[in-house]
Write a structure and sequence with these properties.
By secondary structure, the protein is mainly beta. It has helices at residues 2-24, 256-263, 362-369, 386-396, 429-439; strands at residues 38-41, 50-55, 65-68, 70-74, 80-84, 92-97, 108-110, 116-124, 130-136, 142-146, 157-163, 170-176, 178-182, 188-193, 198-204, 213-214, 219-222, 236-237, 266-273, 276-282, 285-293, 299-307, 314-320, 323-329, 338-342, 347-350, 373-374, 407-412, 415-417. Helix 4 (386-396) packs antiparallel against helix 5. The longest helix is centred in the N-terminal third of the chain and has 23 residues, at 2-24. The radius of gyration is 29 Å and the shape is globular.
């Protein structure tokens, strides 16, 4: 009888111990996906995902910081979800690898203050890295629409399809867009902040509708009135030329891209015959290559590149930073194709107009992003280092000859040699000293 009682007590005590044990450890609060910088769905089962990252200011150097990603939970498909928060709010390049570094994703960029959801579907790019589907999850999530040609009536509704990333539950949201005024042609401009979790959306005036668009972050769109194969109105992205997501204001100019095309009009003309002239306005191909911040952390100038699709009609040859550039230059608001947008003065400054002396750090940025050959690069590794100083010193000591390709194809002012770092028309030991001082930031 005692044995029977004892056997009956065992499961009771076990259940009691389990209850006490479970109650002794409070349940963790679920991770809020919208408060992390990056959330990574590990659909390929990377072993212990690791993120490699570097600030945008390093311009893709070999110096990468790394950290293990933090596990969140499993989604409804049994795939692990991980998150990572960057050390600060600046822009970063990054990629994700497994712990053994046998597999990795393509290189990605996270703009400051962006929240990104990353998904892998198993396909590889040309470099053998996994492609990543990126969804932007921002507090803004702002969509601005220009009703070009009054394509829709003045009662525009946006229809969003949203998915909860944790549960996979879907929902549809319909809401009237806010009219915020007219564009330069008197056509209505509308805005709406879509909810987090938005996967796709379209516009309608309840009689006509547009095609469906995949949501990938804040965007400015317009409707020219043409149809796709299904008879729905096509929607176009004004910021098609690239660069970070636009930051919107209520003023007449919303982005640097807008300002550029408002102040510089690119007109291409072509004589079909003497009595028939074809002409068209072109948007500039535009990219923001670098943002500089002042001591308060505010952007004070931006390095930009701008040119059009038109055929090259000018060959640009000159010195940009420490680089000699020789390339065809299509129509551009700047002679070299590069310029600075001075945020505080609200002006554009061509690189060739002595801009380097006014903007701290500009020359070193140009040395990294502009194609061409660096002045002072004697060993041909596309950088200026102490090795170049050593080569120059040995050449001056007659211990070796100057490289055969040290002479410029076309002289530029006084400069005839790539080794002429101080630009006085001669290559000598003074150039070695000039490089040393430049390396020491003197």
């Amino acid at each position: 009888m005692k044995k029977i009682i004892a056997l009956l007590l065992i499961p009771v005590l076990t259940a009691f111990c389990f209850t006490v044990s479970a109650g002794a450890v409070p349940a963790e609060d679920p991770i809020d996906i919208y408060k992390q910088d990056i959330v990574f769905t590990n659909s390929l089962a990377f072993t212990e995902p690791v993120i490699y990252y570097q600030p945008y200011s390093r311009m893709l150097s070999d110096e990468w910081d790394s950290a293990p990603m933090v596990y969140c939970q499993y989604n409804n498909y049994g795939e692990g979800m991980y998150y990572f928060n960057f050390p600060d709010a600046q822009t970063y390049h990054f990629y994700i690898s497994d712990a053994a570094a046998d597999q990795r994703t393509e290189l990605l960029t996270r703009q400051q203050n962006d929240t990104l959801e990353l998904f892998l579907y198993g396909d590889l790019n040309a470099d053998g890295y996994y492609n990543v589907v990126v969804r932007h999850v921002n507090s803004e999530n702002l969509i601005v629409l220009d009703n070009t040609g009054d394509t829709l009536s003045d009662d525009i509704v946006i229809c969003c399809h949203c998915i909860d990333p944790f549960t996979g539950d879907g929902s549809d949201i319909r809401a009237k867009m806010e009219r915020i005024g007219d564009n330069d042609f008197g056509e209505g401009r509308y805005r709406f902040t879509v909810p987090n979790g938005t996967q796709s959306f379209y516009f309608t005036d309840r009689k006509k509708r547009t095609e469906e668009i995949d949501f990938s972050g804040s965007v400015w769109l317009y409707l020219p009135g043409d149809h796709n194969a299904d008879g729905k109105y096509k929607v176009y992205d004004v910021n098609w030329a690239g660069g970070p997501d636009p930051i919107w204001s209520m003023g007449p100019s919303h982005t640097i891209f807008d300002r550029l095309n408002e102040e510089y009009v690119s007109v291409y003309t072509y004589d079909v015959d003497p009595e028939n002239v074809f002409w068209a306005d072109f948007f500039y191909l535009y990219d923001e290559l670098y943002e500089h911040r002042d001591s308060s952390g505010d952007v004070d100038w931006v390095l930009i590149q701008a040119e059009t699709f038109t055929a090259p009609d000018v060959i640009y040859y000159g010195l940009i930073g420490n680089r000699f550039v020789y390339r065809p230059t299509p129509s551009s608001p700047f002679e070299s194709g590069y310029g600075v947008y001075d945020v505080k003065q609200d002006i554009f400054v061509p690189i060739t107009s002595n801009a380097e002396s006014h903007y701290k750090g500009l020359t070193r940025v140009l040395d990294k992003v502009v194609p061409g050959r660096l002045l002072g690069d004697l060993d041909g590794d596309d950088s200026i280092t102490v090795i170049d100083v050593t080569i120059l010193q040995r050449c001056e000591a007659k211990m070796r000859d100057y490289p055969e390709n040290d002479t410029l194809t076309y002289p530029y002012g006084k400069i005839r040699y790539y080794s002429d770092f101080n630009r006085d028309g001669e290559r000598d030991i003074i150039d070695a000293t000039a490089i040393q001082r430049w390396l020491a930031n003197v």
